[in-house]
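Work Package 3 (structural annotation) set out to generate three-dimensional models for the target panel prioritized at the project kickoff. During this period the team completed the workflow that converts sequence records into discrete structure tokens, so that structures can be stored uniformly alongside our sequence database. As a representative example, we reproduce one entry of 171 residues exactly as it appears in the project archive.
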Amino acid sequence: MTTPPQSPGRLPAFNMSLTHVTLPSAQVQVNRLTDLVNEVILGTSVIMIVMSTATDQASPHPAETDVDRSRFAWPTWQGDTIPEAHQKWKAVFAPQDRTFRGLYYEGPTLEETPSFHVPATVLSDAMWKMVKNAPCAVLCTGLTGDLAAVEITTALEEGRLQAVLVEALFT
């Protein structure tokens, strides 16, 4: 699911694609019935928000490059680990209509707190459940468009993704 580009003031316009990933979990949940293991949870599904530079809709070819990686300075994501937590980036969701509203970076002053607003993007039932059960999201650069699982896996294996794990805020 891709949100249309939105230009927030003097910041460049970005596309934000929403998908989901399963993060490895150090927490293994075991339920026991008379010493028999009946359930093991090895991962947690969370929403992944992929940021890419918006392209001119009149252009016949989408941009081959992703956003300027130095703009976000997120670490390379090693696929077998959870992305590094980042306390200042936030993903914003609205519970009243179950939508994704954008991102912001908590700067020291209001002038240094950029917001990336997008038109309200309604989440599927499964995605809304993910956000409610694990109020976090993965912010990622290195891909563009609506993504298939194989594209994400390949990009992880090739070390092309930069990502952070952030708090989901409900407004």
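The mean pLDDT is 75.
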